[in-house]
Each structure stands twice: as structure tokens, then as C-alpha cells.
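TA notes. Do not distribute before section.
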Amino acid sequence: MNRYCQNSGPSKVTLIVFSVIVLLLGATACGGSSPYTDEQLCQPLDGLTPLCGFQSPEDLALLPDRSGLLVSEFGAMGELE
């Protein structure tokens, strides 16, 4: 069987990391207040390391070799007239 046709699906760790990122981004986007500082939220916890420093992340994609996460950010559209 061709190794490129195998689909083992995302791992449990991948799903957990992705869920944490989505939840953190969702809380930020909804204006939710948090009792934690940015420094506290960016500390590793239970084997998971958050990705910090993004201002307007939009699209998240796990790289095919699962070595990292590709993130695109929304840039400014210029001044409104």
C-alpha cells in the first residue's frame, strides 16, 4: 500500500493542542476577560505548550509531518475613509 494513502487521522495530543488553541483564541476574540496575565497563559502546562505572540491569527494548519503548526495572521486593511 502506498504510504501516502494511509490515513491514521490526527493523534490525541494533536487534537488536544488544537482544542486549547481554539479555546484561547475564541476567548480572546469574544472579549472574554481572564484573571491570568499573558505571561501566565503562555507557560507550558501538563505537557502542552501554547503558541503565543499572535495578534490576529486566522487559519491554523498542522504541517503534514506533524512537526509544527502553520498560522496565518490578518493584517491591517488600511485606514477607513
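Switch to the second chain here.
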Amino acid sequence: MRYYHKPDESQETALTAGGVIHIINHIQMQKYISRKKFLASIPLIASLPVILNMMKKEKFYKLSFSTLGCPDWSFDKIIDFAKANNYEGIEVRGIMREMDLTKVAEF
């Protein structure tokens, strides 16, 4: 016996990142999926890269790094590295092996 969950109008989801992920998770949670539903889901899954590229980037997590990985770098070198590698954030944990940021001249 197969059971399918049909969402009512209040549960319908718009095509946002959460909505697409909800639809994919819903498909994955079903133990059985009919051929008709599988074929109907192919266009959505195939268009997923286009949908994600069209969405606003500020809804996603920003790429950042911690200065713990570069203990000998100066603050200027850290900033230049972040700009050159398209990082959008820096977790400043120490500069030039100084972990007490109140003692760092840049701060």
C-alpha cells in the first residue's frame, strides 16, 4: 500500500531556497514514489541551478575565514587575502600571534 501526502493550500510553498529544499526533502522522505510524480519532479530538479542563481545572494551564508589559520600575517595581508579570494567576512581571533586584540595597534 502506498501513502502520499498531498499538501493543502496553507502548506504550498513558493519557489524560494527553503521552498525548493522543502519539495526535494518531501520527495526524498517518501518511501515509494509513483512514476507520474517522479517524472513531474524532473523539471524542478533540472531547473534548480537556474532558480538558485536567480535568488538573492544575501539569503545565503557569507564565505569567511578565521585568522587562527594565518597567525603570522599582518592585518593588511589578511585584508588583501580576503579581497583577492572573494571572502565576505573575517573572524579576527588574533593578529601577528597576538591573541589579545586590545593590544593590536589596528584596533
